[in-house]
Description:
By secondary structure, the protein is mainly beta.
Amino acid sequence: MRRMLLISALLLAILPFASAQFITFSTTGEINVLSGDYTEGSFTLSNDAELNFDIVSFKEYKVVDERLNEVKGFTLELEQKIYHNWNSTQERKIKYKLSANESVKAGRYQLLLTFWGFLHSGDVYIITARVPVNVIDKPLIFKEASSYVKERPLSANYALNGETIVVYSHVESLKRTIIPLKAVAYLEREGKKYSIKEQMINITKGDNIVKLEVLVPYNIPSGRYKLIYELSYEGGSYIFSKEYFIQFGVEISSISLKSTSVLEDEANEAYVTITSERNIPIDITLEIYGENNQLLRKEVKRVELRKGTNVYKFELYPEKSGDMKVSAKIFYNGTLLGEVSTFYKVIAIPKIEKININQWKNEKKADFTLVIINSNSMEVKGSVEYKIYTGKGILYKGKSDLLLLPGKNELKLTFDVPEREKVFYEFKLMSFEREIVKEGEVLFKWETPTPTTTTEKTTTTSSPIQPTTQIEKKVEYPLYKFGLAAVVIVTTLLLYALRRPRKTRRRRERPKPKRKSPLGKKPKKFGFFRR
């Protein structure tokens, strides 16, 4: 009889569950557990049904693999098994402790939970929930790393020399004891490593933040670099990399000149433009190269850059003629930051190298041959003004327009010249608003037909340039001969008048009568003969 009453009581207890309905609660979160160890934590269950439960009671659990086969070796302990007044859309945190023995292989599993839910009406629901379980055979879980430039917005993918790149990541440890972790970060380009930062970190159970700061060196050139971040321990390693464009933040934008062509006696000016994202001292080197890339001049200037655009002026002193290259370079502590260059032409002023004077044999004529040097590689317009004179006045005066070819040019002028009298000459070569003056004197002696010796001196002044025509002309003034003759005659008459003796004043005498012709008469005897 007693046995029948016990069976009846069990049937009455089980009868409500025979008609129970099935629903599912959603879960948030996952469980990571180390094989041969345990983990503690919590996940979230959400009542997605439109039901308000008076009581939700934990019934059982099991763990299945990806093929839904049950896997042994797991032990689950819940901190709380009965939950009251679990209404619709309400979430509850379920705190747990899950163990996995060493027989459980690493992989992904699912923890299947079963609850009984009781409504106020007496209805019973069977509630199921699935929680992802990740079994790991290594104690550390490396989360994705991130990096940024400390002095710039988080989105910046470039850095300036001297700035700092920060790299960090979360490392979760599943082991209850400390795990030594080695962290290394550096910049790498073309196989070379720069600014290596290394640190040993003790990782404890739970979440750990690993952070390193890499200083971008000042002495590395601009370009693309790769940030390398490595974490390693006995059980494994993690590598993260990100590309950054490294630049100094100082750029030499341009170099300009006041003039692209100057005369050899003129200075020029160069203007170097530099843009900067920082306030920093740098060195500017200006170099001038001539033909065959020969370094002619070098100047170094230390300047203090300011953020924005900076312009610096350099004086380019007169150089010898030819094509000039101007190169500007900027340095920081010896590291080249940039270089620009430009060109200009220095034009040579044509010069009278010498004057060859040759007198004609047996004739009162002389040739004046001017040797003119044009050191430029181009034709140059010019003119020559000449004046031939003595102490008595100008003999010849005129002008010849020239087109000077590159190299040596000759201009020959022929004049009538006096003998044994100093003849002075002056030749002015005019080009590019410049004058080159040659002066001298010469004494002609016709008994010596060889070239005469001369005395010359040269001066340089400014004068407007003349139109260019290929002309050689001789200018004579024959009227001077008549003037000279008149002067000679007047001088002779004056000298004659001055040297003529003066007549003495005599008493006036009566003139004697003219004697008749003695023809036919007896001549008188001289007084010193006696009769």
